[in-house]
Each structure stands twice: as C-alpha cells, then as structure tokens.
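Exercise 7. Given the encoded structure of a 483-residue chain, write a plausible sequence.
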C-alpha cells in the first residue's frame, strides 16, 4: 500500500556544529513533541482540518473497518487475571499447599518452597452476560455487557521491559514501531493540528521507557507523542512574551527556506523532512492543544462521572476524559498508562488500590463514548504485559502475592466491532496456563489491526533488507473476538 523505503546509503561524517545542528537544537520541548506528526501547513481540508496530502493524510484501509480510533489502556506491571476477571475456585481448596512448576523450573525470584494462594477477592457474575468480575470492580460491572473478555493470550517473556516491548511493539527487544505508529502509518491522521498517536504516561515512564511508543524504523513522523503527567502537558506551549503569531510565521518561513535548500542536497533523509514540518505542527498546536487539553470547561456532571476531584480517581479520570476528547478531535491512537500492577506481595492491598483508581474512570469512558455515539467507532483495549501465577504466597502470613506468568492472562476489549457481552477462551483450573482459544500476542495484534481495517501482511515497511510487519512474521485473526 506504500512505496518501499530504502535507507540512505553512507554515513554522516563527524563535523563541527552547523546551521542544521543549531536548528535541530531548537526542536526541544514543544518542537520535539510535535516531531511525531509531520503535516504540511498548506495540505489540509479547511472545513474538517484533516490533511489532504503528506505522510499522515488519511488513507483507505485494506479491509472494511470496524473502528477508526483506538484507546489502549495499559496496566503496566501485569495485573493478576486470577484476582480481577478469571476466578479460580480451586485455589480455595489448594490454598497454602506446596506449588511446583511444570518441569520443576524455578524463576530467578524463587527461593525455597512456594505455595498456592487463593484470591483475597470475592467474584460476581455481572450484567446479563454474566461476566466474571471481582466485586471491587463495582463501576465496570455496570458496563459488563459492553465488554469482550479474552483469556487465551500468551506472551514469551517474564521480564517487564521485554514483555512491555512485545505487547506494545511486537518485538521483545525494542527498536520496533509501536502499535500506534503502525496504525498511523497505515491509516493516516484525521486531524491536521494534533499528533496522530498520543501517549498519556505516568510521571515515571514505564519499564522500557519511550521505546514503548517509538516510531522504530518507520519515518520519524509516526512516533508517539507523550504528554507530561504533571505540570504543563507540553513544555513551551505558549510563545514567549512579545512574540506575535506574525513574527513566528516569518521565522518559520525563513527556517523552511533554509531547510528546503539543505534537504534538496540530502534526499531520503526522512528526519530532516520531519524536522521541517515539525515546526509547522508546533505552530498550529499552540492554537489547538490548549483548548483540547483544558478540562475545566467540561461540565461538573461529566467530571464527576470520571471521578475527577476525588483523590483515588482524579489522575486516571483526567486521562480517560482527555482520551475521549482526543478521539473526538480525530486522534487515531491514544495510549493510557497506569501502574504498577507488579504485586509480588500484599496483592489484596496493592491490587485493591489500583482497581480503586481506574474502575470508575474506565467505566465512565465507556459510558461517555456510548452516549456520544463514539463507542462503535472506538476500539478500547485493556491489558498488561502478562498475567500472574497462582502461587508466590507466604505460608502462614498475610503478604500473599503472585509471580509473573506469560502463559495466561486476561485482556478485554470494548467497542470497535468486538463481540460485546462474551468471554472468549479459558485457563486451567488454577489459572496457570491458557487452555482454550489459545493465541500468541501476535494474533492479538493482527486482530486489532483487522478491526481498524488493516491487514498485517500488507502493512509492511522495508528495513534492513526485508519487509517488516507488526507481527514480525505473520499471524492470524482471532475470529472469536469479532462481532
């Protein structure tokens, strides 16, 4: 669907700082944020604000799409499926009996004997669909019939950074494009004035850092744009005092002329092309972004719905409300981070606090999108990087927790053409391993792309001597998830 890209031959020699280096240094803060979404200032539809040409102009998908936007809720650290959405009554019978892994292989964290531990949470059957939920998901239970639970996913790594990379980028070792980068590469952007891939991280970046939303080997304009969790979401969003829009426009025009001359001497250097349009997007963002990020104009009923103003839910509630606003504005892919769910001990307290912080905001997001007629066109994904084991308890104590488990996890989806009100797949009686409708995470990625109208086998990019794709070497659609 796209012209193959062949990297520029030859390497740049070391040199003293040049005009180009100086101009690049100006790309810090707002400029670097805009780096991920190059669009030409002259190539837009003035009525819809969508670009009409350039790398992020809207493109037709390979297949009819169920969804046109995606909101990805990433619960970093690995939520325990056993203590959230996949109850295991057998663990009550096995509680504190000795646990031995298959093949007697032990993780690096193991020392001495280990024991099965039951969940500290009670479970209910929620909604008409009878979805399994721990009782502390009281708000999400009200929208249970909008959810599609999937219990058959497996990954390859028990280490957080590599598992995060695999869930976000398809490759355990980093350096590959993020999901949002692939989506924008395949479909383009729906808003000329905003990045097409926006990330809402915690104050501390997730394990693996910004590589989780990298453009990888794709052109630089497809990189994710993180918004700061505290303070101004974007530094230098407002121009310095005394600098008028007219003056900025003249400066940008001069820089564009200088860079265009230099670019003509270096064809195929995509970072330079991105840098040129980076300034233009930054200029436009100064008008669009403050209004988009301003939640003070939302009515009090809406803010209360998301739990804004409450200690436990304010932070993630703001992220969820902002995600709704961003997809309304046409942002293709928004990823929200929450964590960490890495509960090796005191899981009742740790998971209890984490659920309390996200339960109401997530339910509000689904409700709000549905009321606005946006849920059908917005795919929501909830997951971590892996699941947890049925063991890792402390015999006779109360610090029960769980270890990392790549062989079983629960993720759920909403909107965007998924089979709402269903639970797909299953794990064994202790939750140690997926046993029904089992698929590697690459198949989940292929399915997400399909819901957005993209074919993983056709969404490729030429790099390092071959055509590469999100799934690495192909996968299959999980048809059971699609309505």
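Solution.
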């Amino acid at each position: 669907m796209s012209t193959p890209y062949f990297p520029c031959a030859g390497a740049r020699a070391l040199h003293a700082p040049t005009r180009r280096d100086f101009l690049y240094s100006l790309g810090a803060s707002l400029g670097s944020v805009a780096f991920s979404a190059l669009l030409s200032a002259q190539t837009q539809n003035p009525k819809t604000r969508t670009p009409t040409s350039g790398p992020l102009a809207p493109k037709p998908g390979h297949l009819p799409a169920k969804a046109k936007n995606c909101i990805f809720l990433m619960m970093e650290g690995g939520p325990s499926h056993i203590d959230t959405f996949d109850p295991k009554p057998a663990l009550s019978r096995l509680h504190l009996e000795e646990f031995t892994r298959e093949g007697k292989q032990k993780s690096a964290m193991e020392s001495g004997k280990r024991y099965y531990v039951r969940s500290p949470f009670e479970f209910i059957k929620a909604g008409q669909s009878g979805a399994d939920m721990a009782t502390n998901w009281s708000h999400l239970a009200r929208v249970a019939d909008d959810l599609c639970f999937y219990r058959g996913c497996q990954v390859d790594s028990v280490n957080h950074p590599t598992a995060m990379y695999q869930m976000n980028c398809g490759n355990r070792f980093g350096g590959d494009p993020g999901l949002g980068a692939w989506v924008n590469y395949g479909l383009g952007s729906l808003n000329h004035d905003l990045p097409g891939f926006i990330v809402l991280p915690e104050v501390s970046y997730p394990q693996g850092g910004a590589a989780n939303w990298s453009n990888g080997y794709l052109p630089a304009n497809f990189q994710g744009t993180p918004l700061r969790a505290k303070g101004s979401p974007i530094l230098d969003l407002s121009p310095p005092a005394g600098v008028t829009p007219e003056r900025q426009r003249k400066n940008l025009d001069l820089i564009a002329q200088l860079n265009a001359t230099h670019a003509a001497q270096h064809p195929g250097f995509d970072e330079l092309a991105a840098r040129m349009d980076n300034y233009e997007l930054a200029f436009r963002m100064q008008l669009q972004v403050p209004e988009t990020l301003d939640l003070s104009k939302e009515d009090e009923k809406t803010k209360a719905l998301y739990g804004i103003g409450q200690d436990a839910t304010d932070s993630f509630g703001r992220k969820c409300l902002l995600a709704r606003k961003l997809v309304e504005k046409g942002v293709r892919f928004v990823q929200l981070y929450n964590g960490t769910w890495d509960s090796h001990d005191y899981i009742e307290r740790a998971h209890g606090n984490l659920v309390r912080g996200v339960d109401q905001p997530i339910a509000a997001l689904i409700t709000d999108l549905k009321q606005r007629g946006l849920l059908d066109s917005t795919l929501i994904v909830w997951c971590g990087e892996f699941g947890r084991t049925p063991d890792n308890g402390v015999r006779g104590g109360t610090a029960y927790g769980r270890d990392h488990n790549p062989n079983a996890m629960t993720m759920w989806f909403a909107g965007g053409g998924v089979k709402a009100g269903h639970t797909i797949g299953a794990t064994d009686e202790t939750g140690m391993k997926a046993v029904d409708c089992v698929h590697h995470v690459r198949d989940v990625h292929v399915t997400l792309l399909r819901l957005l109208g993209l074919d993983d086998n056709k969404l490729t990019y030429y790099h390092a001597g071959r055509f590469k794709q999100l799934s690495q070497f192909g996968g299959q659609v999980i048809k059971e998830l699609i309505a």
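Remark. Residues 19-101+110-481 form a domain with the Alkaline Phosphatase, subunit A fold (CATH 3.40.720). Students should compare their own answers with the one above.
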